[in-house]
Specification:
Blueprint: E1 5-8, H1 14-23, E2 28-31, H2 35-42, H3 53-61, E3 65-67, E4 78-81, H4 96-105, E5 114-117, H5 125-135, E6 146-149, E7 168-172, H6 175-186, E8 192-194, H7 198-229, H8 233-240, H9 265-273, H10 280-308, E9 316-320, H11 335-345, E10 349-353, E11 359-362, E12 365-368, E13 379-382, H12 391-397, E14 401-403, H13 409-414, E15 418-420
Parallel strand pairs: 1-2, 1-4, 2-3, 4-5, 5-6, 7-8, 9-10, 9-13, 13-14, 14-15
Antiparallel strand pairs: 6-7, 11-12
Bound molecules: nicotinamide-adenine-dinucleotide.
């Protein structure tokens, strides 16, 4: 049976999306350039933690498939693009992957096709960049084919809010495009929220991520001030969160991580310049958040100094958790990478333990997770608060702990060998 829906990009977004459509009884094919990923998917083996292999294998048995061959899109009704949208080295939008895919799709486009871009990007991408490429097919938008933008809101590792039950925002180039996209998503996703244009949908996603980035920066700045004023920032955030309205708690930490929040706001900053507009909140938040690994290095240094009369140079430090957030093994943009480099540059001998990351090669670092033996180190720095760790036991076993996530909670507050952010 021919697939109805092609999803381009079998990553953190594409695979869960394929699962949701396949579980709704739709025939789905994933298209990816990495042969190894395609082979794994076709064997029913999942490399995405949110999609268990057991569930994937069942769907594969019922017709879900993967391929590296773009020709498959000819047979489908809908093509969803879920490809990376990184920043260039100059921190400008790099749409090369998405535009490359559009160029693959254009010669295969046929009457009746719906194309939806899901990748996070600046307002105008769908209309100004994707549409002209698809129009090289000679087909007419709104009549022969339809094009829309619908942002992905998946939060990897989360089980209460998933691709299926998080409302899906969709905006098409024409009203008919919006209708087609809304109908498609409505066939598998609980709620669809229509907006009038792709630009509104594109900016919706950026607003959501910028909201997080700015609020995290605010609480990070407060954390630095609290350190000087000797106030516990965690206690303050917890107390403020008891207000039933008008406040939403955000946690301080060693810096931003993941594919979205450290990157996406700068897509808007770049586009805003075209309109002579300077996005000051975004820039300031970026500046504060990027300072955090440096501040955290100074916390480790102070802790060693106060508790052990040691300097960072010559100390051996265990970084506990290197994934960018708990419960997953995703290392993208993880603040642990920057912090490890800073500690090493200061002369510390750094090891790491992470139950989700056995080894990694990133940012010039090549490391393997060591056994969890906190007593063997001068200092244990909690960078990612994975739930697999017994933090009470850690406080008992370690000689010194720097807790950047409030993982040690009340026990850490009561102990004179725990230094908290
Ligand atoms: N990961 C998240 O939590 C998340 C959440 C919301 C939005 N997004 C956005 O969704 C988009 C996709 O992100 P992701 O996290 O799924 O990326 P990813 O890196 O996990 O997956 C991308 C996949 O695309 C494949 N690929 C690369 N070039 C290709 C090409 N030319 N043709 C086909 N496949 C190709 C890669 O091999 C990879 O499997 C990005 O714009 C991201 O910002 C991600």
């Amino acid at each position: 049976m021919k697939p109805e829906i092609a999803i381009i990009g079998a990553g953190y977004v594409g695979v869960p999306l394929a699962q949701v459509f396949a579980e709704a009884g739709r025939r789905v094919v994933l298209v990816d350039v990495v042969q190894e990923r395609v082979d794994q998917l076709n064997r029913g083996e999942s490399y995405i933690e949110d999609v268990p292999s057991e569930a994937l294998a069942k769907l594969v048995a019922n017709g879900l498939s993967a391929t590296t061959d773009y020709d498959i899109v000819r047979d489908t009704d809908a093509i969803l693009i879920a490809l990376p949208t990184p920043l260039s080295r100059q921190r400008e939008p790099d749409l090369s992957i998405v535009l490359g895919a559009a160029r693959e799709i254009a010669p295969r486009l046929r009457k009746g096709h719906l194309v939806v871009l899901e990748s996070t990007t600046y307002p105008g991408t769908t209309r100004e960049e994707i549409l002209p490429i698809l129009e090289t097919s000679g087909l007419k938008i709104g009549e022969d084919f339809h094009l829309a933008f619908s942002p992905e809101r998946v939060d990897p590792g989360r089980t209460d809010w998933t691709t299926k039950n998080v409302p899906k925002v969709a905006g098409g180039i024409t009203p008919a495009c919006t209708d087609r996209a809304a109908d498609l998503y409505g066939s598998a996703i609980d709620t669809v929220h229509r907006v009038s244009t792709p630009e509104a949908a594109e900016l919706t996603k950026l607003l959501e991520n910028i909201f997080r980035s700015v609020n995290i920066a605010l609480v990070n700045e407060m954390a630095i001030l609290c350190d000087r004023m000797n106030i516990d920032i965690w206690e303050v955030v917890e107390a403020a969160a008891t207000k039933p309205f008008g406040f939403m708690p955000f946690s301080p930490g060693p810096g931003l991580g993941g594919h979205c929040i450290p990157i996406d706001p700068f897509y808007l900053t770049w586009k805003a310049r075209e309109f002579g507009f300077y996005t000051e909140f975004i820039e300031l938040a970026g500046k504060v958040n990027e300072e955090m690994p440096y501040f955290c290095r100074s916390l480790v240094s102070q802790a060693l100094n106060h508790a052990k009369e040691m300097s960072l140079k010559g100390s051996n430090v265990l970084v506990l958790g290197v994934a960018y957030k708990p419960g997953i093994g995703d290392m993208r943009e993880s603040p642990a990478l920057k912090l490890i480099s800073l500690l090493q540059n200061a002369g510390a001998d750094v090891s790491y333990h992470d139950p989700h990351v056995t080894s990694f090669t990133e940012h010039g670092l090549e490391m393997t997770s060591v056994a969890f033996e906190p007593a063997a180190y001068d200092c244990v720095v909690i960078v990612t608060d994975h739930s697999e760790i017994d933090y009470e036991q850690l406080v008992d076993d370690a000689s010194l702990v720097v807790d950047l996530r409030n993982a040690t909670g009340a026990k850490g507050t009561a102990s004179d060998k725990v230094f908290k952010l």
